[in-house]
Design brief:
Length: 122
Amino acid sequence: MAKTIMIVDDSASLRQVVGIALRGAGYDVIEGSDGVDALKKLTGQKVHLIVSDVNMPNMDGISLVKKVKEMPAYKFTPIVMLTTESQEERKREGQAAGAKAWVVKPFNPPQLLAVVQKLVLP
């Protein structure tokens, strides 16, 4: 059975690029356009990993991580931040909120897939 990964980014083109890479590697993909949209789509189904941008309208990625970690069904879901932010302070903030990895854009799909494969639980 395919593992499900949620991509949360306000850029449709980035969601498309990440989605193509993940689907190509055999994953099912759910897309969210920002934190609020992503939370609406987390309805109890199994999500094996979330890939989220940091800077988004309505709800940023770090707030999303905090909210997801409060949800019993998703408390242990690994979250990867995929962002242009590379400051240590933002990374620490993300880790403190519960993000497991930090990938800086522009990224290459094999690099992202390697991170995803390490974090997706069997």
